[in-house]
């Protein structure tokens, strides 16, 4: 007999007190050992429409709801006595007649039972909103189309009557595959192709595996109950599972907007590869040490078994792993030239050759993004380099004049035993290329959109080329540190092996939609790989983000303090709040605003660049003033119109990253005249 648990059970389990949870765990373990349930006093739930629902006694008050057939025992729900019964009385578990996926269907009897739609707050002030009757979102879809995406027949009428505001309330009652497909239809006018059933087994359908997981043994059960709030540890979206399980003949990439679970896929994939081959050595790396640390923690959730796969998965930051390998080779850490040193050496060399017409900023940027990034070591190489991502054109004469400056800086740095990160990565890549044995079998990288050329070369060389060697997770819309360049030219060709995730788990529909207005709907990289950003759906609903422009910094501080205090009063903890500003200097403005707020020291205040990869229940993006977003200093850096465009776009992406850290609440504040980007967020959706 199959033993299974449902996500409705883990979610309900999570809401119980610690004492009740302990008792429930013991009962579920008993049930797994003795699947007849004889020891647990099973009672059939007579009032349920589904004759296979039974209750099992956990303690005086708590009841476990199981669904028992000849072939399977499914742990479906748990709650205090009356609630547990009420839940089971209103559910059916059955294979959907069209898709074949097993579903937990909420029985739909009377239309008025569904709560009226919540009044949604809108970004625009109410006074300026025209009072329009909302169109029915799905009126154009016939029964056949609605059933094809897994909508239970009971809900056809409600869905056809749904408007934009009422749909989210309704969506909570529907199986997720149906609500996601309908949201995608609302966003794009297209219904996604249904997931085809692989076999006659309704439990094996990819949509069923999102909510119901077969448990093979006690170890798996322990893992599933160890961190019930980490739903991703047990239940994956079919598109996430597919990318976790698939074998790729060459380098592959997972893309997707913020919060679509790219990191989750990267971690699952690492564990899957490690479990699949007991000798495999895997690198799971991310942009920074804190992000690598966060992945290491999640890895333990997914593979808690001691002595298991975790020791074979190395988690590290991009620079961290390079530093370790450098140290192994050279016995010392690399002596990295800071940007102050570089600026000083460049100015000195420019003066020595009496170079005119190029600013110090330009020299540093050309050094960092062209000479050093691409490892240019000769005048010839500089004459022909494509200066990828540098939009300003440089003719042969200009390059000839510039080269002696860069050549002398290279010599000066070498003489002082300085190196740069790009040199470290490039040298290690060269060394690895000649070695028959590589340090890893599989390399998985998160935040791949911010890889520099030398870093990509290095990571591509870390594992033997071939099946599943390199897997990259990233979102072009969040590229904030690097100029774009061709991955294919460096041998990392992901064309045909690039997949986009479309379900956003982090950010409410309202916040995600507003943030999406900051970016184009399709992003294309240098190799022509496209990320389509239309049709992304969020799995939950919340208040619309607020955009507030005030006249003075004091007024802004008062607004932020009031908002944050309101969140705290609502039960959001200080650790669940993040405040982001454009530059490190502005962090003081955020701290001052929090001066009178309780437990303010636990609230994260940071520059936007450090927001990457994080998430908070509530976020404030402060100081969105003109001159700050985009940052005047950076705009002044632009060598020409084309470079100016790139700077504007990068600043926009930075704001997108900051906004998409928010799960439920987002507020943006600025002192007038405010950042022009705020107008995009204010657009009525
Ligand atoms: N299948 C899932 N079920 C439930 N929650 C999920 C699932 N997949 C991801 N999540 C949750 O969604 C949030 C975002 O996931 P993750 O950090 O992997 O997204 P991301 O695409 O890497 O985001 P970003 O691009 O912003 O770094 C996390 O809280 C994660 O736990």
TrEMBL record:
Species annotation: Sphingomonas jejuensis
Domain UvrD-like helicase ATP-binding: 235-514
UniProt-annotated binding residues for ATP: 256-263
One family name in Pfam for this protein: UvrD_C
Listed name of the protein: DNA 3'-5' helicase
Reaction equations catalysed: Couples ATP hydrolysis with the unwinding of duplex DNA by translocating in the 3'-5' direction; ATP + H2O = ADP + phosphate + H(+)
Superkingdom, natural source: Bacteria
EC annotation from Swiss-Prot or TrEMBL: 5.6.2.4
InterPro entries: DNA_helicase_UvrD-like_C (IPR014017), DNA_helicase_UvrD/REP (IPR000212), P-loop_NTPase (IPR027417), UvrD-like_ATP-bd (IPR014016)
Alphabetized UniProt keyword annotations: ATP-binding, Helicase, Hydrolase, Isomerase, Nucleotide-binding
């Amino acid at each position: 007999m199959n033993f299974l648990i449902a996500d409705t059970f883990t979610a309900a389990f999570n809401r119980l007190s610690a004492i009740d949870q302990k008792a429930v765990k013991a009962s579920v373990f008993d049930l797994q050992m003795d699947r007849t349930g004889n020891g647990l006093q099973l009672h059939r739930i007579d009032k349920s429409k589904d004759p296979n629902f039974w209750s099992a006694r956990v303690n005086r008050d708590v009841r476990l709801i199981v669904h028992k057939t000849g072939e399977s025992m499914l742990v479906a729900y748990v709650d205090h006595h009356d609630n547990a019964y009420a839940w089971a009385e209103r559910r059916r578990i059955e294979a959907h007649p069209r898709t074949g996926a097993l579903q937990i269907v909420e029985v739909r009897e009377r239309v008025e039972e569904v709560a009226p739609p919540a009044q949604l707050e809108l970004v625009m002030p109410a006074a300026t909103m025209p009072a329009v009757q909302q169109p029915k979102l799905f009126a154009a879809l016939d029964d056949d189309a609605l059933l094809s995406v897994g909508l239970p027949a009971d809900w056809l009428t409600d869905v056809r009557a749904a408007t934009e505001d009422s749909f989210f309330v309704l969506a909570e009652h529907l199986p997720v595959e149906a609500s996601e497909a309908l949201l995608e239809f609302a966003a794009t006018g297209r219904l996604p192709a249904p997931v085809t059933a692989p076999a006659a087994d309704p439990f094996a359908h990819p949509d069923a595996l999102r909510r119901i997981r077969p448990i093979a043994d006690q170890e798996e059960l322990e893992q599933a109950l160890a961190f019930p709030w980490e739903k991703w540890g047990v239940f994956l979206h079919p598109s996430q599972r597919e990318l976790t399980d698939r074998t790729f003949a060459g380098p592959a990439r997972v893309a997707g907007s913020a919060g679509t679970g790219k990191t989750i896929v990267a971690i699952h994939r690492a564990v899957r590869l490690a479990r699949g081959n007991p000798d495999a050595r895997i690198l799971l790396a991310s942009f920074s040490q804190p992000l690598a640390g966060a992945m290491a923690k999640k890895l333990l959730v997914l593979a808690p078994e001691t002595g298991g796969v975790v020791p074979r998965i190395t988690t590290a930051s991009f620079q961290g792993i390079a530093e370790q390998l450098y140290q192994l080779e050279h016995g010392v850490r690399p002596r990295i030239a800071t940007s102050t040193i570089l600026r000083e050496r460049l100015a000195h060399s420019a003066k020595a050759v009496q170079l005119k017409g190029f600013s110090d900023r330009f020299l540093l940027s050309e050094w960092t993004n062209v000479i050093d990034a691409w490892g240019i070591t000769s005048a010839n190489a500089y004459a022909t380099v494509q200066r990828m991502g540098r939009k300003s054109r440089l003719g042969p004469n200009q390059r000839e004049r510039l080269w002696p400056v860069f050549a002398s800086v290279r010599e000066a740095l070498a003489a002082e035993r300085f190196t740069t990160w790009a040199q470290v990565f490039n040298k290690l890549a060269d060394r690895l290329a000649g070695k028959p044995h590589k340090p890893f079998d599989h390399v998985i990288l998160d935040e791949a959109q911010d890889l520099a050329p030398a870093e990509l070369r290095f990571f591509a060389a870390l594992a033997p080329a071939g099946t599943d060697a390199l897997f990259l997770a990233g979102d072009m819309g969040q590229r904030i540190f690097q100029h774009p360049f061709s991955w294919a030219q460096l041998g990392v060709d992901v064309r045909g092996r690039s997949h986009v995730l479309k379900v956003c788990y982090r950010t409410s529909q309202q916040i995600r939609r507003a943030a999406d207005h900051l970016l184009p709907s399709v992003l294309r990289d240098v190799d022509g790989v496209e990320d389509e950003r239309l049709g992304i759906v969020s799995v939950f609903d919340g208040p619309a983000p607020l955009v507030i422009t005030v006249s003075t910094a004091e007024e802004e501080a008062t607004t932020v303090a009031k908002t944050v205090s309101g969140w705290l009063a609502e039960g959001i903890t200080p650790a669940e709040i993040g405040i982001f500003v454009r530059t490190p200097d502005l962090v003081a403005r955020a701290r001052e605003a929090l001066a009178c707020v309780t437990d303010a020291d636990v609230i994260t205040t940071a520059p936007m660049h450090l927001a990457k990869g994080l998430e908070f229940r509530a976020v404030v993006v402060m100081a969105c003033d003109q001159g700050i977003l985009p940052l005047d200093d950076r705009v002044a850096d632009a060598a020409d119109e084309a470079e100016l465009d790139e700077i504007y776009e990068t600043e926009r992406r930075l704001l997108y990253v900051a906004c998409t850290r928010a799960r439920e609440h987002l507020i943006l504040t600025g002192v007038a005249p405010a950042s022009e980007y705020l107008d995009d967020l204010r657009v009525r959706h």
